[in-house]
Amino acid sequence: MDLSNSYLNKPNLKTLSLDTENQETPIHFITDGITPTKYFYRRNHFSYPNLNQQSLLLPVYGEVNTPLTFPYCYLRSMPGRSIVSVLECSGNKRAYFNPKTYGDQWQDGAISQGIWKGVSLSNLLNLTGIKNTAKEVLFIGQDQGTRTDLDGIFNYAKSLPIEKALHEDTIIAYELNKSIIPYEHGFPLRLVVPEWYGMASVKWLKEIQVIDYKFEGPFQTIDYVYYPNKYNDKGAVPVTTIKINSIIKQPLNYSLLDTKTHEIFGIAWTGSGTITDVELSFDNGSTWKKTNLYGKSSQSYGWSNWRYLWEVKDKGEYTIMCRAKGSAGNIQSLEAIWNRKGYGYNAVYTIHVKVE
């Protein structure tokens, strides 16, 4: 039996939960710069929503001069904007926190990179005209359900400060990887907010409201907040910009290798500036060796690929550490900042291999 083209030789999404559906990208086996849509990670807070004809209309109202409702077909007829951007769940790598934190135990695959096309949100807001009283822009999704900590039914909803909402690359997307956004990823319309963790990129957009107050919905002020203390909320700050991070794609952790030259490769990314260097250490961080960056996205929102040729002559066990540096002066540290909900893990990436 020829298995060369069978599903047995292809990666699959890694399922963390089915209700709601949360699945990881097989990131260690994706060599394309753009993540194929079928391998995009899935992060849901509720069951998938039921859509109807009303879902093809996007109302924009609130602190605006002219409230408008934009039909899906009209949005697609407007001047489009395409961006290449990382989408990363803020809980990516949660499984590595010590002590452990509660929630889906994401490892490395709550991250993907796509070509997003849509219309700049600023174009819509300019058409409606923002009042001087506006403070935030609120995005409400079609998806809804109950929570374990509060009574009632909630729609997934998040807000952005006016400045971030007006950035030209904050878009209302209708395409992913040059095709209509799949239902699982937010069809017909989803917000895409480059540089910020994926919780800001609201799927299945139902409506946009310009508000004159600070939004305090549960996904804004309870979830997606860094709580540095286990038993109280002192020092809590919102989760926003993606932290500098990296992974070693290959070799895999606890691989068996032989004595020859091996290619070590992976990706690095950041929400602040761009990646300038990725370094490896083979002596527990005493010295660091630069890798070769390549295949960098033409836009600052994409990850950087890197590779390193490692010539190993001696048998034994090795620890390989990886860290990224950025143009904003940011660098991965040896330890991530622990927080109660397990967001933003970005410690130096470490694998162990044995050479036989």
TrEMBL record:
Chain segments annotated as coiled-coil in the UniProt record: none
SUPFAM superfamilies attached to this UniProt entry: E set domains (SSF81296), Oxidoreductase molybdopterin-binding domain (SSF56524)
Cofactor(s) needed: Mo-molybdopterin
Xref: Gene3D superfamilies: 2.60.40.650, Oxidoreductase, molybdopterin-binding domain
Annotated keywords: Metal-binding, Molybdenum, Oxidoreductase
Moybdenum cofactor oxidoreductase dimerisation domain boundaries: 241-355
InterPro entries associated with the record: Ig_E-set, MoCF_OxRdtse_dimer, Mopterin_OxRdtase_euk, OxRdtase_Mopterin-bd_dom, OxRdtase_Mopterin-bd_sf
GO molecular function: heme binding; molybdenum ion binding; molybdopterin cofactor binding; sulfite oxidase activity
Limits of the Oxidoreductase molybdopterin-binding domain: 45-217
GO terms (BP aspect): sulfur compound metabolic process
Protein name per the record: Sulfoxide reductase catalytic subunit YedY
Organism encoding this protein: Clostridium magnum DSM 2767
Name of the encoding gene: yedY
